[in-house]
User: Fold this.
Amino acid sequence: MPALAGKLVDAPPPPPMPDNVPEAEAAPPQPAIRKSVGLGQLLYENHCVSCHESGVHIRSRHAVRTLPQLRETVVRWSEYARLQWRAEEIDAVVRYLNDSFYHY
Assistant:
């Protein structure tokens, strides 16, 4: 709830949906990949970018040549950094890196 002059107030309700809009068109679902890309970018920027500038991913002699190698590299570095990422978080970072730099 938004705060106003130190007091909590209720947020106004959302406007009603018009009756003539089919439910499927009213609120299209966000693709899962977009959510994962956002999570992957957030994790990468918070935990990896301090050592890995984006240039490491676009140089012609980068060690990663396949999507499985990219995942193995993310797993290895996350373990090295003791990040304790779940599989979902690793997949999100892999997806972010692949979509942003590698395109496998």
